[in-house]
Amino acid sequence: MSLLPWRDIDTVLLDMDGTLLDLHFDNHFWLEHLPQRYAELHGVSRAMAEMELHPLFERNAGQLQWYCLDFWSAELKLSVRDLKQETAHLIALRPDADTFLAAIKQAGKRVVLITNAHRDALSLKLEKIQLAPYFERLISSHDYGYPKENPQFWDALQADIGFDPTRSLFIDDTLSILRSARDFGVAHLLAVKEPDSRQGPRDTAEFAAVDDYRDLIAGL
């Protein structure tokens, strides 16, 4: 990947899950732990649990409620917060993400976390990984009422923090979100090559991708 034009970047917008944190925690939770515990708590087989859950997941993917722990707790009649605590030991930083964060903060860049994670999920992760000191703001899309996939999220973010999209870098592991940011006018965009450490590299389509955070620091 070529060097970033750091002299043209004032603001760094960063996703959390799959970008700064290993997506293995979330994938394991939603695809393995939740179906298993749902089956146990509702007295059905694992296969039946998956048959009931998968249509719900597909119907709500990419919408704000997909990321909302209150929604899923009500929908599934269990405490998603409590179940997440059961696997919280899997929450982990991606390699050298903290080195990157320290470097861009030291360089005087404005650094803002923008995540679709529900505030309760954000709090759980910040208890395990000390990310907050690196950021000017920690913004959940639930604060605005729109997920990052929605153009209205970007309008709300602009009204809130007043950033210049033409002088901003945004890193996210979700291609639909990167495309939404591009449509808004964010000039510098990077995907993540390997969001989940257990699943290997993946195709990031038209976007250049972060493979090693130490490479991004060059030229700061």
From TrEMBL:
Enzyme class: hydrolase
The organism's place on the tree of life at top rank: Bacteria
Molecular function per GO: 5'-nucleotidase activity; metal ion binding; phosphoglycolate phosphatase activity
Database matches in SUPFAM superfamilies: HAD-like
Keyword Hydrolase: yes
Pfam families given in the database record: Hydrolase
One record GO biological process: DNA repair
Keyword terms, alphabetized: Hydrolase, Metal-binding
Family matches, as CDD domains: HAD_like (cd01427)
Gene3D superfamilies recorded: HAD superfamily/HAD-like
Enzyme Commission no: 3.1.3.5
GO CC annotation: cytosol
This protein's record includes keyword Cell inner membrane: no
The protein's name in its UniProt record: GMP/IMP nucleotidase YrfG
Lineage: Bacteria, Pseudomonadati, Pseudomonadota, Gammaproteobacteria, Pseudomonadales
